[in-house]
Design a protein that fits this description.
21 strands; alpha/beta; membrane; elongated
């Protein structure tokens, strides 16, 4: 191999490398594998509701009521737990990403060494060999039959010859020969990284859970101020009006009562549970070699109803194997044709297709060839000649049938084989010598045999596609290869695709494109821009779209999809824009990702009804007690303990339990359809009890004790209703909460701290009667709620929350 057009054939010196590193001319380009530390801290600490909680906490400390500031400690714990969980998830994901960092081979100080891809510098001499992935944009300086697979860039799997002066882009793969190339663009300037940087400008993955919770928080943020004024004014008048309350100091208790009402309205725990569920799901998937680059993507794939698959690297492994030989004239075939095939398979410079011949044909000629013409992607054939008198005498040509025989004499046979998804080559023979200088076909060629090759299908592809079909997820195959070949492979993995649609005939209008996409499953000759247009059209048609792929040519579509999924073997740009990366390239992980997402959605929907019920009844209580000028029936410390035992702690475990319920849109609507009427029942029950207790002359401490007991009973019942069916761990969770509440109401030290007193007969009777009526009303609400859910989910029992 001669190095032409190379100014420094020995490569850079150590001093030159150091100078470029100092100047920042390196291939370093940081791709965030997960959320940054700063974003995690901002998301968990700098929130509007943390601000409200912090203000209330400080007010109580200034008033000397530290006992009622327990919710502040709880809020701090929530923030710490949420941050720690996400930090742990980030550490696990970053570790996996680091383990899969690639390396590059460079020539420096006249020696070849391996360095990290990030350590490649401008003007480095890359040493490229078969199997290498080009780490940075470079210009070929020397080539010995160097061939690159640029399917990462174009989607087409045909090899491309590279000669000195040609440019190679990062992401392409050397499949034959060897060469050297001088790096011309590094880091953010390289082709792949420019694409990645452009794609990363897109917003966060769409999350129904996150957007629904944000809607609730926005509503609460709008009403919390007016309600605070209403409640505080009412509590002031309970203590005799503004003048009297400030003279007597009772305004302090009015402020405490107001804070109790406000804190109960804020569903802080719901935000925490969602973050924890996402983080735990991401860590569980990381253990199975699935890198989740954004936590909400765990939920996202569970919402997908259509998945677009690239053929190469997704359905197939990207490699080919020998299929069969088809002699064209067995009785008249020249001697030694199988020996010629054995030589093609064992040739050192053999490309990927020719290497497949080494196993079935192992008896190569005993004498070396007298001349040869190497394979070229432009002419799509190679040739070799052996001397007369040897066991493979004559000239042998191996290549594409239509290129070796332009007269299409083999069109019928070769097209029939290609239509079955097989790649076809022809072996031809001639007694004429080879002309190495003109690199032309020898005269009087006669076809000897057709050879078929097939792409290696991923062993898990058929099973995974069957899973998606069972789950009602539609599939579209979009590839840069021949439509008939792609359709044949699609049939191999179980898709009902009689033919493939040639993307060169696709309309540009999105509506017309969507119509074509609804009628066909397989598309070939698809350009990167068309892949993106297909995803856009499907989204506009109302689908939630996932896109898988491994090439740079897939990156535009992957970043446009609702959920982008990349293979670890794929291009850096593609992995950078994907939400999920399959680190071991196993397509069979996708069902597990779907199951994890469904668990998150189903469990968060369950616990959201607990938290939203509390928000509704807390808001109702604030409005009712403010409007009717009644003293708020709880101390903040009482609400903190009861909420923790009936909502917070059980919700933590319920959010992480197995749950295979199918995803159905409308999470917030279904949650509120239970939470609003149930919360209204709870608020009315507490209001009625407080009004009756006040009319019966029951004292302040006993009234609060009765209110807390009533809320405890109703809260436990709501927890039980939403946990049905009660089995396994749910029995332990609910039982533990009941034991905790027994401790709260029976241990003297705890009852003294919570200002509980023994209830009188009147209080006990009121609590019992109001509890029974409330429980009956909640059962009725749940009955109609389940009917509503089943009706909106087309009576699918697997969708029951």
């Amino acid at each position: 191999m001669s190095a032409t057009d190379v100014e420094t054939p020995t490569g850079l010196t150590s001093a030159e490398v150091a100078q470029r590193v100092a100047d920042g001319r390196t291939n370093a380009f940081t791709q965030q594998s997960s959320r940054s530390v700063a974003s995690i801290i901002r998301a968990n600490v700098l929130t509007l509701f943390n601000g409200i909680i912090a203000a209330c906490f400080l007010v109580l400390l200034l008033l000397g009521r530290w006992q009622d500031a327990l919710f502040g400690i709880s809020a701090i714990a929530n923030t710490v737990i949420g941050s720690v969980q996400e930090f742990r998830a980030k550490a696990a994901l970053d570790k996996l990403a680091l383990m899969h960092a690639p390396r590059a081979r460079v020539r420096r100080d006249a020696e070849v060494s391996e360095v990290a891809v990030a350590d490649v510098v401008l003007d480095d001499v890359l040493v490229l060999r078969a199997g290498d992935q080009v780490p940075a944009d470079a210009r070929v300086a020397a080539s010995a039959h160097l061939q690159l697979d640029e399917s990462m860039l174009t989607g087409e799997s045909d090899a491309v010859d590279k000669v000195p002066g040609d440019e190679v882009l990062s992401g392409s793969v050397v499949i034959a020969g060897e060469g050297e190339a001088v790096v011309v663009r590094v880091g953010a300037d390289s082709f792949a990284n420019k694409l990645a940087a452009e794609a990363k400008k897109f917003s966060l993955v769409a999350s129904e859970l996150r957007s629904s919770i944000d809607k609730v928080l926005r509503v609460v943020s709008w009403i919390v101020g007016p309600i605070a004024l209403l409640v505080f004014n009412a509590q002031i008048f309970v203590f005799g009006g503004w003048e009297k309350a400030f003279e007597s100091g009772d305004w302090r208790q009015a402020a405490v009562n107001t804070i109790a009402a406000l804190v109960a309205m804020i569903p802080l725990g719901l935000v925490l549970m969602t973050s924890i569920a996402f983080a735990v799901g991401a860590v569980k998937l990381a253990r199975q070699q699935v890198l989740v680059q954004e936590l909400a993507a765990v939920e996202g794939l569970a919402r997908v109803d259509l998945i677009c698959l690239d053929k190469t690297g997704t359905l197939t492994e990207g490699s080919i194997v020998f299929d069969a030989e088809h002699p064209l004239a067995p009785d008249a075939a020249p001697a030694g044709w199988r020996s010629a095939l054995a030589w093609y398979g064992s040739e050192p410079d053999a490309n990927a297709t020719a290497r497949c011949l080494a196993e079935p044909y192992d008896a190569a000629p005993s004498t070396p060839p007298v001349s040869r013409i190497p394979f070229s992607s432009a002419r799509k054939w190679s040739a070799v000649a052996f001397a007369e008198g040897t066991d493979a005498a004559g000239s042998w040509v191996l290549g594409g049938p239509e290129m070796v025989f332009p007269d299409d004499r083999l069109a019928g046979e070769s097209r029939a084989l290609a239509a079955s998804g097989l790649r076809t080559l022809v072996l031809a023979h001639s007694a004429a010598p080879l002309d190495e200088e003109s690199e032309s076909l020898p005269a009087a060629l006669e076809p000897v045999a057709l050879l078929t090759f097939r792409e290696r299908i991923r062993s898990d592809a058929a099973e995974t596609l069957a899973y998606f079909a069972e789950q009602g997820v539609e599939v579209r195959i979009i590839s840069g290869d021949n439509p008939d070949t792609v359709a044949a492979i699609a049939r191999t993995v179980g898709l009902d695709a009689t033919t493939g649609f040639d993307a060169r005939q696709l309309p540009e209008d999105p509506a017309e494109l969507a119509e074509v996409l609804s009628q066909h499953l397989v598309f070939g000759r698809v350009t990167p821009q068309q892949k993106k247009a297909i995803v856009v059209a499907l989204k506009q048609a109302g689908h939630t779209v996932a896109m898988t792929g491994d090439g740079v040519n897939d990156a535009l579509a992957i970043k446009e999809a609702d959920i982008g999924i990349a293979m670890e073997s794929g291009a850096a740009a593609t992995k950078a824009v994907a939400r999920i990366v399959l680190l071991d390239g196993r397509f069979s992980h996708l069902p597990r990702v779907v199951a994890e997402g469904r668990q998150v959605i189903a469990n968060i929907e369950r616990v959201s009804m607990l938290f939203l019920t509390k928000t509704v009844y807390a808001t109702g209580l604030a409005v009712l007690f403010g409007a009717f000028v009644l003293e708020f029936p709880f101390l903040p410390r009482q609400l903190s303990v009861i909420d923790g035992l009936t909502i917070g702690i059980p919700a933590f475990f319920l959010a992480l339990m197995p749950n295979a319920r199918r995803y159905v849109p409308g999470f917030l609507r279904r949650s509120l359809s239970f939470a609003i009427p149930t919360g209204a029942v709870v608020a009315i029950a507490l209001f009625v009890y407080s009004w009756l207790a006040t009319q019966a002359g029951i004292g302040q401490d006993e009234l609060r004790t009765g209110s807390t007991l009533l809320l405890t009973i109703i809260g436990l019942w709501v927890l039980t209703v939403l946990s049905r069916p009660i089995d396994g761990w749910k029995i332990l969770i609910i039982g533990s909460m009941m034991l905790g509440l027994i401790v709260v109401y029976s241990v003297p030290l705890v009852t003294e701290f919570l200002v509980f007193v023994d209830p009188s007969i009147v209080t006990a009777a009121l609590v019992l009667v109001v509890s029974v009526v409330s429980i009956a009303a909640i059962e009725v609400i749940r009955f109609f709620h389940l009917r509503y859910v089943r009706r909106t989910a087309r009576f699918d029992p697997s969708t029951e929350p």
